[in-house]
């Protein structure tokens, strides 16, 4: 498991400096918020908070290994209530419950469909787990099978 997530919160030192350099402020109202409104410093939308909240992503390049099984892309609605370890365990169990993937370029569609279903099942289970743990944020989860 490799965690690449760094929270895009307004009081992270580099984000705080960027917001202040743009003329904005971080106000603590139930946690740090840009202008006292938004609890994240990067977002798509929220145009009324430009130029303080920007849509520019942070990009990380990571070398993959043959042991890499899956990639979990999720919003903080999941990560605020589910640990990385738990999310990885759920995804691995769903992926291992399907038959092994065929090599890239293979014509075996049933294996690809099984992998798609396993990824969908993992995403659904993780979403339900976040809801069961009373996540109060929106929840988006995508699981990608890296073995295909």
UniProtKB/TrEMBL annotation:
InterPro entries membership: PP2C, PPM-type-like_dom_sf, PPM-type_phosphatase-like_dom
Protein name: PPM-type phosphatase domain-containing protein
Cross-referenced PROSITE patterns: PPM_2
SUPFAM superfamilies: PP2C-like (SSF81606)
PPM-type phosphatase domain span: 1-146
GO MF terms, alphabetically ordered: protein serine/threonine phosphatase activity
């Amino acid at each position: 498991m490799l965690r690449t997530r760094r929270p895009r919160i307004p009081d992270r030192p580099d984000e705080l400096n960027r917001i202040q350099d743009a003329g904005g402020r971080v106000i603590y109202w139930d946690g740090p918020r840009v202008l006292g409104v938004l609890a994240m410093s990067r977002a798509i939308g929220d145009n009324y908070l430009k130029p303080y909240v920007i849509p520019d992503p942070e990009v990380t390049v990571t070398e993959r290994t043959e042991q890499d099984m899956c990639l979990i892309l999720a919003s903080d609605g999941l990560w605020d209530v589910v640990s990385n370890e738990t999310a990885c365990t759920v995804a691995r169990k769903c992926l291992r419950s399907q038959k092994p993937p065929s090599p890239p370029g293979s014509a075996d569609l049933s294996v690809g469909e099984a992998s798609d279903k396993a990824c969908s099942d993992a995403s659904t289970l993780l979403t339900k787990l976040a809801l069961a743990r009373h996540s109060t944020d929106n929840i988006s989860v995508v699981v990608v099978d890296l073995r295909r």
